[in-house]
């Protein structure tokens, strides 16, 4: 008698193969929307944060010019419901966006000490 074993997966995108640098195939655990949010945040950091972060550090200042982008409607409290005027993101997508705010917060707090 032969039995067939099925492997159950809880990955959002189990058919994705790991990209270079994704040793744990994290992409497969993310939905398409979650990957889009991640890519959007990475693009924002690459285009707006990284080019000025060194100068901000040397000058000992917080990058206030980024505030309009990070405080835009739907970005603060991004995991709060849309009915509250927020983006209604799940915790994975919210965490990706929060990482940008945390890095800015660390920059701000270190400038105060």
Structural class: mainly alpha
The biggest beta sheet, please? none
The number of distinct helices, counting runs of at least 4 residues, comes to 4
Can you write the helix and strand succession as a string? Answer: HHHH
The overall pLDDT average reads 74
List keywords for this structure.
single chain; 113 residues; mainly alpha; Butyryl-Coa Dehydrogenase, subunit A, domain 1; 4 helices
Task: Give an overview in words.
With 113 residues, the protein is an all-alpha fold. The chain has one domain (28-112): Orthogonal Bundle (Butyryl-Coa Dehydrogenase, subunit A, domain 1). The chain contains 4 helices and no strands. Helix 2 packs parallel to helix 4 (91-112). The model has no long low-confidence stretch (mean pLDDT 74).
């Amino acid at each position: 008698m032969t039995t067939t074993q099925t492997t159950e997966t809880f990955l959002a995108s189990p058919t994705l193969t790991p990209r270079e640098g994704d040793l744990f195939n994290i992409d497969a655990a993310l939905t398409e929307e979650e990957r889009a949010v991640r890519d959007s945040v990475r693009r924002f950091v690459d285009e707006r944060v990284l080019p000025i972060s060194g100068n901000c550090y040397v000058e000992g200042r917080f990058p206030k010019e980024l505030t309009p982008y990070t405080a835009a409607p739907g970005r603060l409290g991004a995991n709060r419901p849309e009915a509250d005027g927020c983006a209604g993101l799940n915790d994975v997508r919210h965490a990706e966006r929060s990482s940008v705010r945390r890095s800015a917060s660390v920059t701000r707090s270190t400038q105060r000490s």
